[in-house]
Protein 1
Amino acid sequence: MGKSWLKRQSLLGYAFIGPNMLGVLVFFILPAIYSFYLMFTDYRFMNPELHFVGFDNIKRMLGDELFYVSLRNTVVFLLSVPVSILLAFLVAAALNKAVYWKKTLRALYFMPYITSGVAVAFVWMLLFQPSDGPINGLLRAIGVSHPPGWLSTTDTSMLAIDIIWVWFMLGYNMIIYLAALQEIPEELLEAAKIDGAKPWQIMGRIVWPLVSPTTFLLLVTGLIMSIKTFGIIQAITQGGPGNSTTVLSLFIYQNAFRYYEMGYASAISWSLFAIILIFTALQWIGQKRWVHY
Amino acid sequence: MRGQSQTQAGTGRKKRWGAAVSGLLLASLLGGCVGMGGNQQATGASGGSEAAAEGPVKLTMWGGVPPENGPQQVVDDWNAKNPDIQVEYVRYVNDDDGNLKLDTALSTGQNVDLFVNYAKSNLDKRIKSGVALDLAEFKDYDIDKMIGPEAASWKIDDKYYGLPTTRNSTFVALNADALEKAGLPIPQEWTWDEAREYARKLKESGFRYGLVQHTASYSDPLDSAMVADGYTKEDGTSNMDDPLVGKWLETLNAMMKEDGSTPPLGEQLTSKMPVENLFLGGDAAMLNIGGWLLRSSNNQKDFPRDFKIAFAPVPRLMENAADYTTSGGVGDIISVNAKTPNKEAAWKFLKWYADGGMMPMAPGGRIPASSAADRDEALKQMLGGQEATYDQPSLEYVMFGSGIPTFNRDLSQEMVDMRAQEYEKYFLGAQTAEEAMANMVKQHNAFLEKNK
């Protein structure tokens, strides 16, 4: 009787996850397997000819200058993740204490995250406008005679995108940190205060280690999310000027949906997958040194 | 299923409820699939002979022009006159995403009977996948005769897979009042050196920019040079370091940096500079653009202006005017889907469209290319009652009278993008003109090698 009850329970469980798993299977796993196969072919969308080409796509990728350019751009783009996390921690710590307009400020910081990406893109394009945009207007007003060209030069465009991305991610990271800060027992902080710890010591020695699991979570998910992001860059610069903001995900998109080079795009996608996997594994190993559960 | 019925029989209310819900979800998912398959079969059948007997033939036409700018009027006119063939217009945006949408619809066999192609590279892909019908099977329309010699630039493997319908024109629109004040005549042919001089003088006369260029027209001079001198050298390697390419790079660069008479490209791109507004608002004196300008310049409500617009051909890079070709010719290539069961009806509509049915699109700058259509009427419609605000002799000259041969860009999208990236980097000062050309040649050669 017991066994059949268990069996029935697990069948019920499968029935529950069934619809979802079906979706994952049809829309994710099967396409992923298919793209793994495509990686070894010269398939172009709209072209019925398809040949098996072995590792030609990988070879082509390794010889493609643009691949390395986009790899470098991706790394620069990812720098925004730790910066955003650190800033979010500081903001959350400040908003967790008694500040005027606490709730309003929290809502304000969270606004970017729930705003349409295209709207965000257009507003930042106006702000960053080099000759008569408000940011450079401000810089000139405080005495910077040659403010940067932001999105309009190859040297600064990635930095400008980083700034936008930090701003965009800040609200989400802050909310998660706020939740973590609420969890810290008040006694710990009081005890530290009684022992004469300075506020910055409390922050650095007690609060920061206590929220380290949250930091780790934000770092892993933030890096994965950012590495896949291309929408905001596509909306603002389309990878330009030149190719200074072409990140890997955008490079894949262009190859697949602009040039219809599905085989080549699949090869780059799987390389990106490998990079994310290695990156995450490294973080997983590295966490033992600094994450305290 | 057996598991579920057992559960229902044996356990409490909650579980029964859960199983029922998930079973329902599963069933609806499966049902959805089955239902979709069923529908497809049904539409497949109704497209055939049965429909012809039962009711009107239904055609779907995909095009890139917003319906309110003419296409809706065109199909309404047709539908009123032809109760047996009813046409529906579907708009796709002519960019990467839009073309992908059309290509997906075409390759998955959704109902697309007619579709408009705007670039040879797109048409080429559609021919390869077998969705564009070779129009040679229709004997009752001589494309070369009706559309003119420029139609031939759209032939692929010496065949027409689509009917060119519009007369495209590219030109430099000029602020005629400003030119007159500065004592500059309206040019009928000019070089980039002369254009630079014009831009400099016009800037001095008080304009923010002497010349602005629409991004769609930006690299046309490069292609014009390549058409004259060849995209490849005699030995089959890239010719993108042709002296004329260098000439173009250096002239524009000097206009951006020394004269300040044209906006720096980086700034134009990343701020998505609205060049039409700059020109019509009186901030820029000249605008390198094409026929689609008229859609905005006729609209005095949103773009009020107090000056006359005159027209000049796009300046040339080479000294010798005889070597010059310009972008333009005929465009809006309409193909019949090779898989449509209603070929004859689609062709009937297409002929009518080309021979004047498309007239409601003239106010948007689309002049019929067919000699059967009334050109004067189209021109009148195009100016939309604003004739007095244009310099008509120069307009007719750039559209019909200049006699400059036209080219049809025949370079793959990858190489167009690559070239743009390299010249952008040069205009931004990230590399020299020599480096830009060397990089273009290097990547073009690699591309030629790969696609040999």
Note: DSSP finds 14 helices and no strands in chain A.
Protein 2
Amino acid sequence: MVLLSILSIPFIAAIILLFVKHNEKANYIAIASSGITLALALNIAFNGAANFDASWISSINARFVLTADGLAKILLLLTGISFPAIFIATSKNEIKNRPQFLSLMLFTQTGLLGVFLAGDALLFYFFWELALIPVYFLCSIWGGEKRIAVTFKFFIYTFLGSLFMLIGIILVYTHTADQSFAIQSFKEASLSAGQQLTAFALFFTAFAIKMPIFPLHTWQPDAYEQSPTAVTMVLSAVMVKMGLYGVMRWLMPLFPNAFSAHSNFVVILSVIGILYASFIAIRQDDMKRLIAYSSIAHIGLMSAALFANNEIGAQGVLIQLFSHGVNVLGLWIIADIIEQQTGTRSLKEMGGLAKQNPTLGILLVGFAFANIALPLTNAFIGEFLMFNSLFQFKPWIAAAAGVSVVLAAIYTLNMVQKCAYGEVSKKMSKMQAPNVPAQFVLIVLLIVVIISGVYPAPLFDLTADTLQQLFIK
Amino acid sequence: MNAIIASALLGVLMMFASWIFDNEKTHTRIALVGLLALIVANLLQLNGIYTIPVDYKGLLSFTQFGLYVNTILFILTFLYVWLNGDEIAKIGNHAADFYALFFFILCGASILTSFNNLLMLFIGVEILSIPLYILTGADKKNLNSNEAALKYFLMGAFSTGIFLLGITFIYGATGTFQLIAPTVNPATGMAREQLMQSAGLILIFVSFNFKVSAAPFHFWTPDVYDGAPTVFTSFMATIVKATAIIAFVVLFHSQYKALGYAWELLLTFVLISTLFVGNITAVFQRSVKRMLAYSSIAQVGFMLFALYGPTNFANEGILLYIMAYSVASIGLFGVLIKMKDYSFEAFNGLAKKEPLLAAMTTIFTLSLAGIPLTGGFFAKYYMLNAAVQSGVGLWLVALAILFAAVSIYYYFKLIQAMYFVEGAPAMHELEQGYKYKLLVFAILILALGILPNVFLSYLYF
């Protein structure tokens, strides 16, 4: 029942928000509902929860099944933390029709939670698409200048991908013994090698677009740049994880043979993507675009480690799913504060943040370190494990991917340098009093970064069962 | 049987209603009551409570499926009249005449859902079609409407000829009008009679393609849908089309084996060209009404997937499809009627002026595009699954899905106009009640999209 309630709370709050007129009230409702969701997520993560299973469409044997294993729990935690953080951090931003905006955000959260909890292929697909629709409206209504074209590209891309997954689902479904959409039946479906390959390709397309893996990434930087920052945070902190989640939940267990047969190919694509995105990130002057490309690089590393198909890599990815979300969220919030107060995203026009607002400067450095994965930060553990797995997979690939660590240091530190140090620039001098709620959120997130960097054991315990399912038959 | 008799009687009653009552609103009320009576009469038979005893000599066969389709069609018509009553009254002199035609159409529809004999099929198709020609030309002072009616009539007459020719061939081959499941001996191949039967079936196939406006027999559709008064386009594109496609599916589920391999080839050809023509042409339309005409062709492309074989998915899916498609289309046409201008630009800024109306339009559009949470998703899903189960190649399914992605383009153009572009839409006056009526359609779409089970369970009583 807990699983059902974590799904219904944001949904109900979203519906209530449709009828709210007052901005402040809307804020409270959104923050309260996402707070409750976070509490429930913590409860599920550390106390466990029974499966929820109800009949849905009986004639085709599709059931409304919600389950929470380690993989789902870690993403529940991430979703749980992200939304209140985003709501609080952006509570002072000027947003037209804030109640509707928040309502759509909560619909998105519902979709995301549904994706992570669904234990039935059709239900999974259902939520997968559902998470996309509100984002389409969020970006197209509240986004930047080129929002309509960019969002449409983003929508068509991901929609097409998920349609391919739908064919994959139909294909596997018709070969299940009991004609059902349950994960277990899908795992036991009797597919020939060729069919397995087809299904693998169909599922993979959807996940690869969502992650995104090079060369299917072209929608992402534009979409991140043009979306309102609150939505960018959702997109890059939580939504891209849907792709990785899909790989771990569906691709690996369902098509093990096709998966290992094509791991080389995907790993190489991912590594190309990492290097490509890192090099572009170095050249960026726009802070939002820089973070976007850095995020592509990080996700690329995660997909490479995942497709290296060994236990240590999967462990690293499981940890990093959470860590990357928190880190990138921190960076976005800082970028958003700067943009809101100074009106610029261009690094050239920045400088002197440390003098103007020391706290924010320190926070920026903290998250920048986490972005480079320095020891003591959460990202170190995940990246260490992932590089380890790539080394086991093929040393030269680990070496190639390792270059990205250096590149990450270059672009991240460059950003810190241009933004925080030097003389106070004209634009930066517009920095006013600190944005208290946002900085509060940042401090909490930084504490999470450091705690999970120093003492990651709870995250390991949380995900042990998923690893066992994936690798010990 | 109940439905056939009741609808014919009600049609006649309705004709005289305009003599007795002068008020158009009264006509609408009588029609609504009549439709309710029709629904009840049909439900009596569906639930096995009472059936008018008629010896129909095996010409008809009443199945759970057919009777349930009747129920759906009647309820859809009821909702349609309930929503559009005032608009219908604005056209022509007596609304009652149009309602009479509706009842005759429903009479044809209830024959089409329960035929067991080619002659009954023919009669059903004709009873269904002839009132349509009149409805198309109902706006007598509008040249477009006249042109559309004439075009429709000429083309329709032509397709009727082809239909009859097909029946003649089959009669020549089998010596009966009764529908007999064909048997082909694979060892000896087709005998001469069987070849004749196949030729007849192909002719009927062509004629049905015309009726459901599948490409390459679709040319009448855009002009007729565009020329006819919008309320009647709404009726033709939904309830009538749904009936034709159901008859199409029922007929060929029992007969397709006679065509052997040729069947898959023929159907695939028609299906691909329908999807292609419908979707690609819709992209270039400037008028929403014409876009909907082409999109209705594209939707037929998806419905044709049900014809590959009589699987459970095909039967349930086609029901879901006609429900989701009809409800969404009636709703969308209902919005369109209230616009003064039918171009996409006319919808600019609708979300600001009429947020509820825009939200409902979005739901209808999303359903037509097949997005989850709306009925259209499951409709499309069932069709694709039916295709895969009947052994259709995955490439065809992938192609259909590519076209579904194309359809996003023109459907979302409407959403983009309403939400993301500023403007002042010119509208006819809009009562609050009308919006609430439309809300019922939107809720139905969502219900179909969340719990399709509820609507299908009736099939298995």
Note: The radius of gyration of chain A is 21 Å.
